[in-house]
C-alpha cells in the first residue's frame, strides 16, 4: 500500500513539473509576432528575475558549463544544463546536426508548440532556429558545425547571432519546423 501511495505522489509531482514547463514555454508565443522577438522579451524577463543568469558571466559559465572542440574543420560545442533550469539558445545561422545525449527536456518549437523530448535523440537544426528549453533532468546537448575557424570567439560569431535581423531574408521568410522525431 505504501508503495502505491509513493507511486501516486511521484506521478503527481511529474505531472505538475510537466505543467509548469508547458506554462512557462507556452507564455513565450502568446500571438505577439515573430517568435524571435517573443524569445528576446522572455530572455529579458528571465535575466531580470531572481533565477536569471546571463550568458558569458561567471554564474552562467558555472551553471551551464561548455566544452569546445576543434578538429578537421569541425567545431563541436557541448553544454551541460541542470535539472529544473530554463535556457534560451542563441539563433543558429547554419544548418547542422545536434544531439541530445543525456536528459529529458521540454522544448519550444518554431510554431509555438511544446514537445517533450528524451535522449538519445538526433536533431537536424536549421538556420534560424532558436530554442527555449526546460530541463526535466540533468541534460547534455551537443551541436556540430562545419567551420574553418580555430577559436571559440570566431566560431561563435560565424554560427550564432542574437539578432534575427542578421539572418538572410530567405531564412526569415522561409523558416520551417525542425524535425524532433528523428531518433538515433
What does this structure look like?
Mean pLDDT is 81; it is low at 176-180. This protein has helices at 2-26, 35-47, 58-63, 152-159, 169-173, and strands at 66-71, 74-81, 86-88, 91-92, 96-102, 104-108, 114-118, 121-125, 132-135, 139-146, 160-161. It has one domain (2-173): Jelly Rolls, CATH 2.60.120. A five-stranded antiparallel beta sheet has the order 1-2-10-5-8, covered by helices on one side. Strands 3-9-6-7 form a four-stranded antiparallel beta sheet, with helices on one face. The protein contains five helices and eleven strands, in the order αααββββββββββαβα. The radius of gyration is 17 Å and the shape is globular.
In summary, what is this structure?
This protein has five helices and eleven strands; from the N terminus they run αααββββββββββαβα. The protein is of the alpha+beta class. The strands form three sheets. A five-stranded antiparallel β-sheet has the order 1-2-10-5-8, covered by helices on one side. It has a four-stranded antiparallel β-sheet with strand order 3-9-6-7, with helices on one face.
Amino acid at each position: 500500500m505504501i508503495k502505491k501511495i509513493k507511486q501516486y505522489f511521484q506521478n503527481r509531482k511529474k505531472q505538475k513539473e510537466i505543467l509548469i514547463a508547458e506554462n512557462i514555454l507556452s507564455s513565450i508565443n502568446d500571438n505577439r509576432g515573430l517568435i524571435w522577438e517573443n524569445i528576446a522579451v522572455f530572455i529579458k524577463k528571465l535575466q531580470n528575475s531572481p533565477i536569471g543568469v546571463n550568458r558569458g558571466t561567471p554564474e552562467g559559465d558555472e551553471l551551464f558549463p561548455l566544452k569546445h572542440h576543434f578538429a578537421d574543420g569541425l567545431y563541436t560545442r557541448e553544454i551541460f544544463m541542470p535539472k529544473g533550469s530554463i535556457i534560451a539558445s542563441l539563433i543558429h545561422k547554419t544548418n547542422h546536426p545536434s544531439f541530445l545525449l543525456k536528459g529529458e527536456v521540454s522544448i519550444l518549437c518554431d510554431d509555438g508548440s511544446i514537445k517533450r523530448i528524451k535522449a538519445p535523440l538526433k536533431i537536424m537544426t536549421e538556420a534560424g532556429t532558436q530554442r527555449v528549453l526546460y530541463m526535466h533532468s540533468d541534460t547534455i546537448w551537443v551541436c556540430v558545425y562545419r567551420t574553418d575557424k580555430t577559436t571559440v570567439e570566431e566560431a561563435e560569431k560565424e554560427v550564432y547571432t542574437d539578432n534575427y535581423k542578421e539572418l538572410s531574408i530567405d531564412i526569415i521568410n522561409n523558416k520551417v519546423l525542425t524535425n524532433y522525431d528523428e531518433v538515433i
